[in-house]
Fold these 2 entries.
Entry 1:
Amino acid sequence: MRRMPALLSALIALMLASLTVGAAHVDLRDIFSDDRAMLVLLESRLPRTVAVALTGAALSVAGVLIQALVRNRFVGPDTVGTAEGAALGLLGVTILFPASPLWVRMIAASLAAMVTTWLFLGVIRRLPAREVMLIPIAGLVLSGVLGSVVTFIGWQTDLMQYVGTWLLSGEFSGVIAGRYELLWVAAGAAGLAWFAADRFAILGLGEQVATGLGLSTASVMRLGLAVVSVVTAMVVTTVGMIPFVGLVVPNLVSRVMGDNLRASLPVVALSGAVLVLACDLVGRLVIYPYEVPAGMILGILGAALFLWLLHRRPAHG
Amino acid sequence: MIQISNLGHKIGGTQILHDISTSFPKGKLTALIGPNGAGKSTLLRLVGRLEPLQQGAITVAGHDVARTPTADLARVMAILGQQTAVASRLRLCELVAFGRWPHHQGRPRPEDRTKVAQAIDAFALSKLKNRFLDEVSGGQAQRAHIAMAFAQDTEWLLLDEPLNNLDMAHARALMARLRDLVDRQGRSVGLVVHEINYAAAWADHVIAMKDGRIMAEGTPDDVLTEAVLSDLYDAPISVGRHKDRPLVLHHA
Ligand SMILES: Nc1ncnc2c1ncn2[C@@H]1O[C@H](COP(=O)(O)OP(=O)(O)OP(=O)(O)O)[C@@H](O)[C@H]1O
Ligand SMILES: [Mg+2]
């Protein structure tokens, strides 16, 4: 497999670039003699770089899972109400228990995200199976409705500025040491999914085939639901939702190497990390020394990639 | 043996199956025939626990379908549904390999790989095995699905219209394989067929269904008669003989 080394090299190169780019000058060659450079590196650059990579990887894996759960390629954790659910949970905690510690907020966000994603799964169960486009549309409607609810409550309680950071502009400029570590939980959850990769791949073959092969579809659905929700909730809590990664990366990888998830999930994770790192870097460079949010760059690039995907003919393997 | 007792089934208030009691004999090839909407697929899906039981009982080789864990049943019977369209982009060899999953749960042993290779070979898929499912023809995809069920290598094999999309040569090859499974490996097979002559030529036992009930069952000679078939399909049907087996003629 030659894809992994290529992706790994790209990842390392982008991470090194991400460590050196920024308003404060940091030369990686003399960090050991320069205390200030070391401080910037450890407190800001490294956390940011790691946060970006973890976010891209975890969201892409979550995208694969939600697509396998609903058996439809045109959905991602940002289009089925999961992110809005997490925001709703955060909002609820912020209003009801303003002084609650981080772990309470994290659990509330995850649980609320699970509930709304479960709601989505319940809605699409009742849709006619042949209408492929109804599923993404149902997801967009659900996230639209939930988003309005969040916005409404946000206005009423004067918490709009929080809502904005959770849902509107996913970006990494605020990441410093001590403020991003939750993303490791997201990455851990995504990593857990790899151990059940075969199960998710079989579930993707349809309930009928999965049952025939002796899979307990309900428990695999629950696991998928939990991973997607936890990943999304952690991302929403720490950096705000990043659009398109969870939709585009799984599609690109599936085009090239298919849906044998045991083999493709690592590639999905690496590609997601590379894509978001690249977008974050572009966002930091285009109007240097100011920044454009990575989420915005992804919105543009992701939409373009997606259109290209829709129009490309399937390659013969 | 598959034992079905007092099976009833409703979908949305409509009674689809009416108090069915029958059995699929062990070590035989059983063909399920009947007009569209007779309830053949529903019956097979209930046996294959793809649908929850509402009324009655089914045992497969002594395992109560309602109580046995689905993972255990997957080592006793393999079932191929009527709808095989999948949205997954798997290579044909990966699909077939999933047939072994009930036996190894993700850690394939050498014997699993051998069985997969045999199944790929048996259905003439060697040249296509690295193609993606969405990049082969309907009949080729169908053969891959049958090969997956074969690779599962279970005592019982249940197939709903496996001849769908297959050309005459591949259809005959499949029937010959099934015969071989029954005669030489002591397996039992149940399949739904629409082309009666495949049942006439290859089956040991025929079950004829109409309107959610069993109209007739027995050997091909007993069931595939002008009287039964004309009644079953509400059309005059003549039956001749060929090589000492019934031959159903549809150009009246
Ligand atoms: N999801 C459903 N909702 C409502 N009715 C259904 C549903 N599925 C099947 N039916 C009805 O149940 C009856 C039996 O269907 P079934 O699929 O078992 O027939 P079949 O004998 O396999 O037919 P075919 O030869 O066309 O495959 C039919 O009258 C059908 O209309
Ligand atoms: Mg049918």
Note: Residues 17 and 212 of chain B are 4 Å apart (CA to CA).
Entry 2:
Amino acid sequence: MTTDVGRSEAPGGAVGWVETRLHLGPFLNALLHVPIPRNAKTFYLGGITLFLFGIQVVTGTLLALYYSPTPDAAYESVLSITSDVSFGWLIRSVHHWAANLMILFLALHVLRIFVQAAYKYPRELTWLVGGGLLLITIGFGFTGYLLPWDQRAYWATVVGTEIAGGVPVIGPALLLLLRGGAEVSEATLGRFFGIHVLVLPLLLAGLLGLHLLFVHQQGLANPKYPEPRPGRPAPARPPERLKPFFPDYILDEVIAWYAVLAALVILASLFPAGLEPKADPLVTPEHIKPEWYFLAVYQLLKVVPETVGVVAPVALVLVIVVLPLFDRGEEVLPRRRPIAIACAVLLLVALAVLTFYGAQV
Amino acid sequence: MRTLRPFLLPALVAIGSLLVVSMAAAGTPADDSAGPSRVFEVSQATPTPEVPLETAPPLPTPIAHRGDATSTGCVDCHAKVDARQAGIADEWQASIHAREGVGCADCHGGDPTSDEITVGMAQAGGFQGVPDREDTVGLCGGCHASAERMRPYQVATDQYSKYFSSVHGQRLLVAKDDRVAICTDCHCSHGVKPASDPTAAVYPLNVPGLCASCHADASKMQPYGIPTDQFDLYELSIHGVQLLEEQDLRAPTCASCHGSHAAKPPRSDEVVDVCGSCHTATQALYEESAHSRLEGVGPKCWTCHGTHDVSEPNESLFLHEGGVPDYLCATCHSPTDQSLRLEMDRFEDPADRRCDTCHHTRSLIYSQVEAIAGAVGGARDAYDTALLRIDDAAALGMIVADADVAAQEAMTELIKARAAVHTTKLTTISALTDATVVKAGEAEALANAKLADSDFRRQAMVVVIALIALNVLVLISLRRRLHAQG
Ligand code: HEM
């Protein structure tokens, strides 16, 4: 079937009117042509992450209309969003849950790519840019957590910035930079807000454009066969069978998005985002708990010396980001990559155990 | 009250002085027969005029000696005698006395500048050995009652005179009974520490245990015929739990009500002032009451709340649960002249600390008690209901901050209403319980609105999910057609 959108003999009406002037047809046509191997299995994880980012942009913009980023007004403005603004509770709860799901699906996306070895030649740069996306998304979580200015927000940020302060050499400077002073204060809230609603969205949008451009240029990886490399004999393999990106792949993707939307609606309705008492720098709560995706690091810090607990996660992320640079084997099937898979399983078990114990008490 | 006084006053003075005289003459503690202990209890329960106190003996002058606390003659030898003596030396070294230059010879006399036993411990040189228990109070007082000596330390100098006004001091003085507590029993002989030192026996958290070390000892108290269950009662009381478990230094220790140096059970007519020294607002309300106007014979704090066993008050204090008690005229009236007379032992059982222990069901006041109990109980119920609704809403994930605020306001009114019970004035109380009910109603309405909102969200969720499902179905059929074509 053909997926040609624009032809030289443009259709009439509004579309034709625009087409005769801008000749967008060939461009859109190229945009909708992404080589998708028939046996590619993405589980739509990257697309779902993209969808959730879209949800965050929309709900975040709406929240920003009512939110005030000062310690005097932040808490009250969030309270008013949830109780006075029509459907404010829904917007806030969806933003809350989509943030969590975004981290979850991002992790699954990375896992899928790791297992299928889609980070190998020629997709090293897609993975590298992805590493940037991962850091930015975590940054969203960290900066957004403070904004409600309740006890949990405040103290998690006190502890979180403290942890950043434990980084060797640059720690103290980093702590000061994050907090904008010695304490978590108005300055901290101001910069977290600015980073959360301006800096990170622009960065994410830019890198995401690059990421998708790369994917568009290279098409999806075939999980069964390695990509033929220049200057090496191409391994014997059946000819690549492709399926159309539009409408076939997109249709399935949209169905997946609907499923995630349904999950969001259910989560937001049954478990709306809560709010603890207003932040009080003089009252330290008994238990300070970060978001679930920081629990492993939090727990690690309890069992190893501070420097190790801070350096290890940073080193781990760096190793993951540069993975394609040292893991250059041609094999893509998991059973032919025992060392890589064993490392990943070990890492996942360690993360699960740390998260489990971090969640206690 | 007015008719009672002329008879009771001389009688009790007579009994009291008889007791004191007999103790003084025999030099033995009061025996534990029912007679004297009965008198002791009546004297707590009814406004008994004080037996005139024997005045404190004149202060001895502090021991004069050579050298000072830096003279090490005593410690040099004694620390080597045996482990006990070495321990004494260590205790003293760690004491506030050692720090402030009070040495061995200040209490024991002798010459601390000498290393020779024949010189240092020569009686001719003023060595006095271990002071008698009877002399110890004067020995401490010699310095501690001297405003001049104590000036640099900014500590009180009235312990000596207070001590001799205490039950301990009077027995020591009048009956020459040296088994009573003297200074060193609480403060230690050698290891004296300031009361602000948490390791001191007299640090507030340690005071109940300190008093109990004698007063909970049946063999020590047996000669005096006084109960030994105070610590057990106190430990479980709201005061005891707050002090001993919560380590809350604001909670009263034994000394807060009985005094420390002037230790003595507060008289019935002193109780209101004693409790009121902390419970100021409640005292003011009580003083507006009909109870307070009865003065000496009226119910006091202890009548409803007990003494050592004060528990968290609640609405059960109004009326007996199920069945009105067996009224005895003697519960409230003197058998001889029918005048009002509340005995403490009649209210020993917490179950008897109820309004209807005195106010007969057929009395006019009983119906007023019922009305007050109803108003306070109703306000409490309204508050509890609001809290339940708020909990329901919170359990559904709703943010209930505004309902919480309203509930807190209701609680404030309820606290005021409960305090106002001490005025015994129905109009005052019901104004506050009405305010509680109104505020609790607001809180409940807010919580109900959240519950309704949560219901709406669930229903809307079902509709939205149905719409999404419909969309997905359309997309799936589109997909089928696509595959059929492809
Ligand atoms: C905001 C975060 C991200 C978004 C929205 C996103 C989105 C996407 C999308 C839509 C695709 C197309 C295939 C699919 O749907 O799975 C994709 C592919 C890919 N992504 Fe991401 N991604 C993100 C983060 C990451 C991260 C953190 C990494 C790795 C560290 C990464 C590495 C890759 C790679 C290597 C591919 C190519 C996969 C293939 O060809 O099969 N991405 N990404």
Note: The mean pLDDT of chain B is 87.
